């Protein structure tokens, strides 16, 4: 069986209105471009979606990860869509495209990427998550719950094909080094790192046999650009079932609206709200941060779906909790812990204001 690669490539190429959502013309343009390419056979299938002001291209193909042709395809679509955004004077047109010229791979150029190459199983359920107004570290908590916490994933306890646990690849975003930690053996070491989710980010998870289970986008836009250009609004791909967490175990961590960094001006802690695509428009205080989950059954690379997994009343309480937590923490206004600690504000616009004050200290 020929291997199939799933590439999820995303960028904020302009918001409608402000940073809150995506203009329909942009989605249509991206779909039409991918439809043309699909007709020529370069890709197997695609789905275009958005979470807030981020355009997410989900593409299946046989060219492997980091394929120049696929990355160029996405880059060209982002450029085309930026032209539309400019025509309509949408907000922050081309915001995530940090370079004028394509250099062979979109990594390091602004867009976020999560890719995995798999041998499609007899049945291959995958869930693609996309977020807005937050950073890649926001996947640490749910990934830990899905793949290491028996209180979330009963399969770790009672399914012999999961009982061995999983391996986690963790990236130190400041040192650009990775470490592999196994669970349950290295669970406490893993938590030492990933509990600091602005510093250590889970990049990928494997079965102990080596089979890939989950991948995330880990591009740190702020660090790449050396200045604040928006939060990273990450994506992630998770395979489910048959020796991997069940669909319900993969979704269960989002039944609590846990806290993530981002929200207004990428400078606040806020509750992560699981929503349907129809509700993926962060508005209140530019938030609260949103997450969508699209489920697909792969069929020889064709994306059967999506099912909008959070369009489900069983997440109503998480959404209500998000609203209640938002109310509470918002009352702190510019005070921590609503505002991020100074160390995390380094790449925001705050240092410019601090600089002005410097001379006044006696
Ligand atoms: C956060 C985000 C928004 C903006 C805010 C200010 O990721 O995108 O909260 O930071 O709307 O935007 P500017 O500086 O463009 O006016
Ligand atoms: Mg934006
Ligand atoms: Mg965004």
Looking at this protein, list some descriptive labels.
362 residues; 9-stranded mixed beta sheet; 4-stranded antiparallel beta sheet; 15 strands; 25% helix; binds fructose -6-phosphate; binds magnesium ion
Structural notes for this entry:
By secondary structure, this protein is α+β, with helices and mostly antiparallel strands. It has one domain. The chain is built from 9 helices and 15 strands. It has helices at 24-40, 68-87, 140-148, 155-158, 187-194, 221-225, 247-251, 316-330, 350-358, and strands at 4-11, 45-51, 54-61, 112-118, 124-132, 166-172, 177-183, 200-207, 212-216, 235-239, 259-262, 268-271, 273-274, 290-299, 302-308. The strands form 3 sheets. Strands 5, 6, 7, 8, 9, 10, 13, 14 and 15 form a 9-stranded mixed β-sheet that branches. Strands 2-3-1-4 form a 4-stranded antiparallel β-sheet, with helices on one face. Helix 1 runs antiparallel to helix 2. The chain binds fructose -6-phosphate and magnesium ion (MG) (2 copies). One magnesium ion binds next to loops.
